[in-house]
Specification:
Elements lengths: L1 H53 L3 H4 L12 H32 L4 H13 L4 H15 L6 H25 L3 H9 L4 H29 L3 H5 L33 H9 L4 H36 L1
């Protein structure tokens, strides 16, 4: 009798847990559908409003202008691309290395605990604080000026906590057995991390990188704080040149503007024609973000197939 009662109780518990799983999954799908519908609605609204400018080639090849029908996003689009390049080059190696160190090498003591708490807290700090930090540190102390390099560094600082936390979570999710197997084959600590742990954690790390870069590309407050221009009618020097050594770093010290600042500038204008330009700029910015995310997802899927 007791065995039958226990079996019945176990079945009831399993049945209740399944119902809870169904409810939570349904809620998750509902939230996802609502969020997706809102995003699609915003995108369609911007696309409809900005379509006359989106189909004009001058919108992509012209500089900003007082005349809305002649204004373009060439300088803003170029500035955004170069700033994001600096951000990725600085933030990804530092973030991944810091995450690996904290998870695999750092001793478990009070200092490490303080560092971990601060890294987690920095992920929620308002972006304007990073702009004030960059203004005092990079612009005034290091005298880097209001340049592309400074903008890339401040956005790298902004997304470093996200990459560090995601790297730690991805590495932490790798089974301990994989490390033990590597040690059993004669690998040392670094070989086990480099050849086994890091490749297995790459999909999770790339997810953090995607989230971080997607946040950075839409930030305006930090770059406004360090002195980004709202109107710029020239391009920085090209990073690639025809003569040896074929790589030019002068663009790092050039003034700049970015897409969010250009969008805000046009939205603040009273003329309706500038609002059309702003809507078109929003579509281009969303398209750049989606393209960047799609590229990272494609790389992640390729790495998964390669690992198999």
């Amino acid at each position: 009798m007791n065995a039958a009662n226990n079996c019945k109780t176990l079945e009831q518990i399993v049945s209740a847990n399944k119902r809870i799983d169904v409810v939570m999954a349904s809620l998750g799908i509902l939230v996802l559908m609502v969020a997706s519908a809102m995003l699609i609605g915003v995108f369609v609204d911007l696309l409809t409003s900005g379509w006359p400018r989106l189909i004009s080639s001058e919108f992509y090849t012209n500089f900003p202008s007082r005349h809305p029908e002649k204004a373009g996003i060439l300088s803003a689009m170029t500035g955004t691309s170069l700033v994001m390049l600096v951000t990725a080059v600085v933030a990804i190696p530092l973030g991944v290395a810091a995450g690996l160190y904290l998870e695999e090498y750092a001793p478990r003591n009070w200092l490490t605990d303080i560092i971990e708490i601060n890294v987690s807290n920095l992920a929620g700090v308002p972006s304007i604080i990073y702009g004030l930090l960059a203004l005092g540190l990079f612009v005034h102390t290091f005298a880097l000026g209001e340049t592309i390099l400074t903008a890339g560094l401040v956005l790298a600082l902004l997304i470093l906590p996200v990459i560090i936390v995601s790297t730690r979570e991805a590495v932490r999710g790798i089974p301990r057995d994989l490390r033990e197997a590597a040690y059993g084959l004669g690998a040392d600590k670094w070989q086990a991390v480099r050849m086994y742990v890091l490749p297995a954690a790459r999909p999770g790390i790339l997810t953090g990188v995607i989230v971080g870069l997607a946040r950075a590309i839409g930030e305006a407050a930090p770059v406004i704080t360090i002195g980004a221009l709202t109107f710029i009618a020239f391009l920085p020097p090209s990073p690639i040149q025809a003569e040896a050594p074929f790589i030019n770093f002068e663009w790092l010290s050039s003034p700049f503007t970015v897409m969010p600042i250009q969008l805000f500038n046009w939205v603040s204008r009273p003329q309706a024609e500038f609002h059309i330009n702003a809507a078109a700029t929003g579509v281009v910015l969303m398209a750049m973000t989606l393209a960047m995310n799609a590229l990272a997802i494609y790389i992640r899927l390729r790495l998964r197939r390669h690992d198999r």
